Amino acid sequence: MIRHIVVALVVLLFGLVFARLVGGYVELSALRPLAERYVTEAPIDLGTPNIITGILITYRGFDTLGEVAVLFMVAASIGLLLRNDEAKTAAAPTAAAKASGTRRATGHTPAARAAAARAAAVAASKAASATPSPASAEPAAAGEPAEAAPGAPSEIVRTGTEVLLPLIFTFGAYVIVNGHLSAGGGFQGGAIVASGAMLMLLARPGSRLNVALLSVIESFAGVLYVSLGILGLIFAAGFLDPRFLPKGEFGAFISAGAIPLISALLGIKVGAELSVIIDRFRS
User: Fold this and answer.
1) Alpha-carbon distance 265 to 191, whole Å?
2) Maximum distance among all alpha carbons in the chain?
3) Who has the most CB within 10 Å: 37, 43, 119, 127?
4) For 257, left (φ over 0), alpha (ψ -120 to 50), or beta?
5) Nearest to residue 265, comparing CAs of 230, 233, 217?
6) Could you read off the pLDDT tens digit of each residue along the chain, which spans 283 residues?
7) Which DSSP category does 251 fall into?
8) What pTM was computed for the model?
9) DSSP state of 250
10) Region of 28 on the Ramachandran plot (φ > 0 left; ψ -120 to 50 alpha; else beta)
């Protein structure tokens, strides 16, 4: 009874807070000074139509670097933790084999050999009774679809993967390379690519990603990302400042200084790290 009263009070409290938030909401009729400065000056200053990407890469460069570092630490931690579990799983069969060998070694007596012979005879009898007769195997020979093995993906998933996977990877690459022109960028495109990798692993449970190659790609992308940031620090106004390269024509594919390069490196790094995390959890 007391628990129900406490829960009701908590729900009532949240309702009051929500009602106060809704009642006090007033739609802004004009931008705040900082937002107005970003909206009016960022396109001219950076040469990019997508103000959000310009803010994330240029004005919030250190924050973006911290976010990438956090993602890297998460991927490394998951890999370390799950690697220990894999080592324990691999060691378990070895220990079981040793124990079985010990039992076999102690069972070389006449009584043990007789018991083993009886067990083998029973197993052979069961196997003979479980073998399908030619009549029962007839539907499969007639070309009827066989039932999927337990845990295997359905035909819908396999067919959908063949159709959707190229589109997902293409769309992810599009979002990455057009991050300075339209909605999207490195983080979003990398997440889309990783979702394609997850779909591929779901459709093909026996396949494995080349984690070593992905780790090398992710490391090179991280090194180049920091190098571009240092170039901005030396030749422009600060870390990850993209204006050490020409801004080019506004709205063109090759424009906005180094923002497209930085966005592409972010996309490669995020996509590789998330794919490794997915593969670790799948394993």
Assistant:
1) 13
2) 95
3) 43
4) left
5) 217
6) 888 899 999 999 999 999 988 888 888 888 888 888 888 888 888 888 888 888 888 888 888 888 888 888 888 888 788 776 666 666 666 656 665 555 555 555 555 566 666 666 556 555 555 444 444 444 444 445 555 566 677 888 888 888 899 999 999 999 999 988 988 888 899 999 999 998 888 888 878 888 889 989 988 998 999 899 899 989 988 888 888 899 888 889 888 889 999 999 999 999 998 998 888 887 6
7) T
8) 0.68
9) T
10) beta
Contact 176, 152 (CB under 8 A): no
Helices (H), 107-137: 110-130
Place of tokens 């592409």: 264
* Two structure tokens written together for 90: 């691999």
The residue behind tokens 């990302």 is: 225
DSSP string, 242-281: GGGS---STT-SS-STTHHHHHHHHHHHHHHHHHHHHHHH
Q: Which two tokens stand for residue 23?
A: 């009642």
Q: Tell me how far apart the terminal alpha carbons of the chain are, to the nearest angstrom.
A: 46
Three-state DSSP state, 156: helix
Q: Which two tokens stand for residue 158?
A: 């396999």
